[in-house]
Amino acid sequence: MASNSTPPPWACAPKRVNTSSVAIRAQAAAVSAPTATPASPSGKKTVRTGNAIITGASSGLGLATAKALAESGKWHVIMACRDYLKTARAARAAGMPKGSYTIVHLDLASLDSVRQFVKNVRQLDMPIDVVVCNAAVYQPTAKEPSFTADGFEMSVGVNHLGHFLLARELLEDLKASDYPSKRLIIVGSITGNTNTLAGNVPPKANLGDLRGLAAGLNGVGSAAMIDGAEFDGAKAYKDSKVCNMLTMQEFHRRYHEETGVTFASLYPGCIATTGLFREHIPLFRLLFPPFQKYITKGYVSEEEAGKRLAQVVSEPSLTKSGVYWSWNKNSASFENQLSEEASDTEKARKVWELSEKLVGLA
Ligand code: NDP
Ligand code: PMR
């Protein structure tokens, strides 16, 4: 972990390093912990700098959101990323102001890394006001499944299970925050919602009876897919997004009243240029942006998408909990309707309970 652009001594050899001790050292050296801000010259009480954790902030939507928040001057961003150098370079290239961010290592493909991340973040000794579960992998061309360190199929393991553990662990930190509006945001997508045209492009999301998830999603003696069917990388991604949206709603039902935390999800628009499509065939990467720009008209730039997610982080008008936000053609936010499966309360409960077992919380 380190703040701003100075690479930490362990950046090149992370395996040999005790990250928690690094955390303590970095804290003293680099982090300007935000404190209560005194009254402004106009006499109005201003809120202290908020602290927002964003996973996958090294590129695409996460980076654009981190930049938008950092540039507002109202947020300190904790960039939770698996590649320190890539993130440091990206933050610098994006022109994020010095002192406005801290990079903390997080590999969502390892539950140990998630637990270590939580410890490291706590050692920063700054309140956690917002958590954004944004990172994702998409493996549409994979013929065979790959697996996380804990043996879960990669897309659901990273996009859903890693984030599930992270969010559950950090809920108590959010609860403890004194920030006026505390939020946990889990990025969803239109392609997980079969009540849309985009969600009806095969392979469609479908969690089925969750038999694969119940069996551990490890592909050994059981399927690597949540519904227990043959592996399909594109479907695994869409299934993971359904889990993301169900998890947000289950959090809302279980914890909104008790904690006052706002739980939200969103579809930021089709950001056709991001690294999400890095594993897709070159022809797709060439045609996808113009197809979305000129045919579906669902395209948004990374910058615009980042502003949208930044709104969900900080806009006083978006405090409603349990909402899946989308934006219309004029870039105005509205509460969108989720598909039948992505709003199935019974399925949400089952996904929650099975996920708890898989990540060792139950
Ligand atoms: P990017 O590929 O640009 O960003 C994904 C981020 O996730 C990267 O920072 C990547 O890190 C990180 N990541 C991947 N695996 C891990 C891991 N194991 N541990 C930690 N971080 C990891 O894609 P997008 O910006 O497009 O995607 C961001 C979110 O937006 C996703 O949740 C996606 O589902 C959602 N979304 C995207 C849409 C689009 O059109 N692009 C549309 C709707 C939703 P690294 O840089 O190291 O690879
Ligand atoms: Mg889609 C309004 C129509 C619309 C929108 C908003 C999207 C978004 N897509 C739409 C339509 C179509 N797409 C149609 C008609 C087709 C068939 C030609 C189509 C195809 C398509 C493919 C092959 N679309 C895709 C793919 C992908 O590989 C992307 C994907 O599913 O990633 C999981 C994708 C996407 N389309 C979108 C969005 C937002 C994506 C990508 C990312 C995501 O959901 O996270």
Automatic annotation (TrEMBL):
Main location (coarse class): plastid
Domain of life: Eukaryota
Enzyme superclass (EC): oxidoreductase
Localization per record: Plastid, Chloroplast
E.C. number: 1.3.1.33
Keyword NADP among UniProt keywords: yes
Protein name: NADPH-protochlorophyllide oxidoreductase
Pathway: Porphyrin-containing compound metabolism; chlorophyll biosynthesis
Pfam families the UniProt entry points to: adh_short
CDD domains associated with the record: LPOR_like_SDR_c_like
UniProt entry tagged with the keyword Oxidoreductase: yes
Role according to the record: Phototransformation of protochlorophyllide (Pchlide) to chlorophyllide (Chlide).
Gene Ontology biological process terms, A to Z: chlorophyll biosynthetic process; photosynthesis
Keywords, in A-Z order: Chlorophyll biosynthesis, Chloroplast, NADP, Oxidoreductase, Photosynthesis, Plastid, Transit peptide
GO MF term list: protochlorophyllide reductase activity
Reactions the enzyme catalyzes: chlorophyllide a + NADP(+) = protochlorophyllide a + NADPH + H(+)
Family to which this protein belongs: Belongs to the short-chain dehydrogenases/reductases (SDR) family. POR subfamily.
CC annotations in GO: chloroplast
